[in-house]
């Protein structure tokens, strides 16, 4: 059987694409992968998604997304796609021992924040540790926060956090930033930002009940000296990595690995293959923008299949 459309990935982009293609009677099937629901599954309070005036927990929101697409009959597989063959149509999707075929694909495998590798990052994830200032900065109003990183991402996060936090401490393991000069200048000229060069985050300190961050242990990369500092929140801003390994060497990507799409569309360089959400978005990386591109991908697919005589 050749399916009209297969969706790979189950965050806001994948579920929205599934919703729209299902309502267009394209009978999509969706592979949720190892981390169903995407990055929102490790997010506690979501207060910036329209329609939830009281806010909502990330996992609860993703459960609502899922229930909505199930209502329209979307076939969801809690399985990980191992390999894809995009060399000819129908496209082939390899899942364990099974092979699925489709006239079109919507790729929404998302992106993952890069972490330092500390166990305490996991322990306090969503409880004072974050990788998204625009998602979580509001919760640190009038508090002191730490940002880790030295690139443009770190500069953007630090600058944004000064809107909410009383003080932002930016640490970088080297003696100078690698960020663009204009981004550095904005941070260095911001009176609410204190910069600590040659400094790494050795440990995040906190309490189990209630679970929250209370401080950090920093290490000087020159002298090796360690010191503790009280802090309310930690933002790890060392970049994101798109989950695009499946498509390397096949789809056009930028140097980091974000899938490139034709401006104003979700079309990739292969006709019939569409990319949505954080997989193709290195700029915004928000749930609401991911959902928007999921809608775009579904409409692009519908038009593609109609032109091909499959819908």
Task: Describe how the helices and strands are arranged.
Layout: E1 2-8, H1 12-23, E2 29-31, E3 45-46, E4 56-57, H2 58-71, E5 75-77, E6 83-85, E7 91-95, E8 98-107, E9 111-113, H3 119-123, E10 129-130, H4 133-136, E11 144-148, H5 152-161, E12 167-171, H6 181-188, E13 193-196, E14 199-208, E15 211-220, E16 226-230, E17 233-236, E18 240-242, E19 273-275, H7 287-308
Parallel strand pairs: 1-2, 1-8, 2-5, 8-19, 10-17, 11-12, 11-17, 12-13
Antiparallel strand pairs: 3-4, 6-7, 7-8, 9-18, 14-15, 15-16
Report on the structure:
The chain is an alpha/beta fold and 311 residues long. It contains seven helices and 19 strands. It has helices at 12-23, 58-71, 119-123, 133-136, 152-161, 181-188, 287-308; strands spanning 2-8, 29-31, 45-46, 56-57, 75-77, 83-85, 91-95, 98-107, 111-113, 129-130, 144-148, 167-171, 193-196, 199-208, 211-220, 226-230, 233-236, 240-242, 273-275. The strands form five sheets. Strands 1, 2, 5, 6, 7, 8 and 19 form a seven-stranded mixed sheet that branches. Helix 6 (181-188) links the parallel strand 12 (167-171) and strand 13. The longest helix has 22 residues, at 287-308. It is elongated. 42% of the residues are buried. The mean pLDDT is 94.
């Amino acid at each position: 059987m050749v399916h009209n459309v297969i969706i790979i990935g189950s965050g806001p982009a994948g579920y929205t694409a599934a919703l729209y293609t299902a309502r267009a009677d394209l009978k999509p099937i969706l592979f949720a992968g190892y981390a169903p629901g995407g990055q929102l599954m490790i997010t506690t309070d979501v207060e910036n998604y329209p329609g939830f005036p009281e806010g909502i927990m990330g996992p609860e929101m993703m459960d609502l997304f899922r229930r909505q697409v199930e209502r329209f009959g979307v076939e969801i597989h809690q399985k990980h796609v191992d390999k894809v063959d995009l060399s000819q149509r129908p496209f082939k999707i390899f899942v364990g021992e099974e092979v699925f075929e489709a006239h079109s694909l919507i790729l929404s495998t998302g992106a993952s924040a890069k972490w330092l590798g500390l166990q305490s990052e996991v322990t306090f994830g969503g409880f004072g540790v974050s990788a998204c200032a625009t998602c979580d900065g509001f919760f640190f109003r009038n508090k002191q926060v730490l940002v880790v990183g030295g690139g443009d991402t770190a500069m953007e996060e630090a600058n944004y956090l000064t809107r909410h936090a009383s003080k932002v401490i930016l640490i970088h393991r080297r003696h100078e930033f690698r960020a663009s000069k204009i981004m550095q200048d904005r941070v260095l000229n911001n009176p609410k930002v204190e910069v600590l060069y040659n400094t790494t985050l050795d440990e995040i300190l906190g309490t189990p009940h209630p679970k929250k961050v209370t401080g950090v242990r920093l290490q000087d990369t020159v002298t090796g000296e360690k010191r503790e500092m009280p802090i309310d929140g930690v933002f790890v801003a060392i970049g994101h990595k798109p989950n695009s390994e499946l498509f390397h060497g096949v789809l056009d990507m930028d140097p980091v690995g974000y899938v490139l799409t034709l401006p104003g569309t979700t079309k990739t360089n292969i006709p019939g293959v569409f990319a949505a959400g954080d997989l193709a978005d290195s700029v915004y990386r928000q749930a609401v923008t991911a959902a928007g591109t999921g809608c775009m991908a579904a409409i692009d697919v519908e038009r593609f299949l109609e032109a091909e005589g499959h819908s």
